Amino acid sequence: KIERGQIVKIMAFAGTGKTSTLVKYAEKFADLNFLYVTFNKAVADRGKRVFPRNVTCRTFHSLAFESVGKLYKDKGKLNFSKMSVLSLCGLLQNRKGQSLFVRGKTVS
C-alpha cells in the first residue's frame, strides 16, 4: 500500500496497463485521495473520465499555474476599464515629429 504523502512515478510503454492498474488501485483504496499528474491536457481529461472520484487529474502546467502563474496572469494585459485618460497618455509614445494628439472614432 502506498503511504500518505508518498510519491510514485510510473514509467512504462504505451498499452502496458499503467492507467488500468492505477484505476483499480484507486478503487481498492477509496478512502485515500490521489493526484494523477500528466504532461498534456488530453490525458488529464481522459483520466477525469476513467478514474474514481478520489483521484484528481491535473497537468504539470495547471499545478504550476495554480501555485505561481495566477499571480502573473494579468501581467502585460491592459485593462482599459480601470485606466484613466492620464494613465493612457503615458502609454502613447511621443515620437520625434509627432504630437500626443490622438483622434478617436466611434464605430457602431
From TrEMBL:
InterPro entries: DNA_helicase_UvrD/REP, P-loop_NTPase. The keyword Transferase does not apply. GO terms for molecular function: 3'-5' DNA helicase activity; ATP binding; DNA binding. GO terms for biological process: double-strand break repair via homologous recombination; replication fork processing. GO terms for cellular component: nucleus. The keyword Chaperone does not apply. This is F-box DNA helicase 1.
